[in-house]
Design a protein that fits this description.
single chain; 166 residues; alpha/beta; Rossmann fold; five-stranded parallel sheet; 9 helices
Length: 166
């Protein structure tokens, strides 16, 4: 079902989540998320919301700033909590993300935290990993998924949902 490159992307995350599942139970961590969605501010009403909604429709719990951060709370502190409560992360790589990373915005801080783990899946949407290498060589070095001619965002969401279903 998966290409070799897709399997290289998803297998390490799947294995790490399976190891986590052995040490956590739903009763001991009811407020954990399956995924943390790192995205550019400019994508929050577009591609990031679409990916979040697709994942949630598949039963995946997603920390998505548009839903998780309440008015009057500290965005940075809520992001920190979201990162600590998430089993894995997705970085939605778009042209907007490039702008955010270059400006050292919030997504830059999220990315730094996610790169410190092996639990990150980059998803290139509307761009390529080649373009990402110019902005974030460390993220571009990770295996990832790309939407476009071969995969739709819905198909990427389904692959990720299957991966985190541990």
């Amino acid at each position: 079902m998966y290409t070799a490159a897709q399997d290289r992307t998803l297998a390490p995350v799947r294995k790490a989540i399976e190891r986590q599942a052995e040490s956590y139970s739903a009763q001991s961590s009811p407020d954990r998320y399956d995924l943390f969605l790192c995205h550019a501010w400019g994508d929050r009403q577009g591609a990031a919301k679409e990916l979040n909604d697709l994942l949630e429709d598949l039963g995946v719990t997603v920390w998505f700033s548009e839903n998780a951060v309440k008015l009057g709370t500290s965005l940075v502190r809520e992001i920190d909590r979201g990162l600590s409560k998430s089993r894995a992360g997705i970085v939605l790589v778009t042209p907007e993300l490039f702008k955010s990373l270059n400006a050292q915005g919030i997504a830059d801080k999220e990315l730094s935290a996610l790169l410190a783990s092996d639990l990150v899946i980059p998803v290139a949407h509307g761009t390529t990993f080649e373009a990402l290498r110019n902005v974030s060589p460390l993220l571009a070095a990770r295996s990832g998924l790309t939407t476009g001619e071969e995969l739709s965002l819905a198909e990427v969401a389904a692959m990720i949902a299957e991966t985190v279903d541990a």
